[in-house]
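Consider the tokenized backbone below.
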């Protein structure tokens, strides 16, 4: 088309038809400009297509990550519930009178309630990459962008509560170490690694008559319950919300 217009322009110049030549010259400029605009539009379309493709890849990766984290959180909540249940059984036997529970059963309850710490440590590789690389803006959903940017703050508040629980657990364990016959508490577990039973006859039931021990176990139980009934459900709710938004944004191929 350009070559065609150039031939016409050359013929018009030769024939000295200046006014008509100007019309064709303007037409040639318009055609060039129009071609540039089309090229820019195509470039913009291709770039937008790349952005949307990247968005879809991140959406799928985030869905996998948050689905995994939800499963991990549910496992933590189950373990935390077990810790609470064991602590509650111990508290059922505390008091000034001689406990009816056996030393062996008390040792099992104590070990089961305190041996495993509960702390939600989510996988955040995808989310961290999105935030650190400044790619949060590629998402079309304002609601999703807000939820992802708010996640760390919600998680931080839960971690503060977890730290309180871990601190109480550590203080309770330290008290047991100082006041109890630890080899008797851990009897079966120690035998599995070659440590024989203690030769001391002192048991651990005296802990059940200790006001300080009861206070430690009460604090441990209530903090565990508080996490499961209040703080962890907020995380579950937030994860479900994020997954729901992602499902709405993911385009099925």
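A designed sequence for it:
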């Amino acid at each position: 088309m350009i070559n065609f217009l150039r031939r016409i322009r050359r013929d018009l110049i030769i024939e000295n038809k200046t006014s008509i030549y100007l019309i064709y010259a303007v037409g040639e400029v318009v055609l060039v400009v129009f071609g540039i605009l089309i090229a820019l539009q195509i470039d913009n379309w291709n770039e937008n297509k790349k952005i949307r493709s990247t968005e879809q890849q991140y959406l799928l990766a985030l869905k996998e990550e948050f689905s995994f984290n939800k499963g991990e959180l549910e496992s933590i909540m189950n373990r935390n519930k077990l810790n609470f249940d064991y602590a509650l059984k111990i508290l059922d036997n505390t008091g000034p009178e001689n406990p009816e529970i056996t030393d062996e059963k008390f040792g099992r309850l104590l070990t089961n309630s305190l041996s495993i710490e509960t702390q939600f440590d989510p996988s955040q590789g995808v989310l961290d990459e999105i935030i650190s690389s400044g790619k949060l803006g590629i998402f079309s959903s304002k609601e999703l962008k807000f939820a992802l940017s708010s996640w760390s703050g919600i998680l931080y508040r839960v971690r503060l509560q977890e730290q309180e629980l871990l601190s109480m657990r550590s203080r309770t364990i330290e008290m047991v170490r100082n006041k109890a016959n630890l080899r008797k508490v851990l009897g079966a577990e120690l035998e599995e690694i070659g440590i024989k039973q203690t030769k001391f006859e002192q048991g651990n039931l005296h802990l059940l008559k200790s006001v300080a021990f009861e206070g430690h176990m009460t604090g441990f139980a209530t903090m565990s319950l508080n996490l499961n009934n209040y703080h962890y459900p907020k995380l579950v709710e937030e994860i479900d919300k994020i997954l729901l938004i992602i499902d709405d944004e993911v385009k099925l191929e």
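The longest helix spans residues 18-91.
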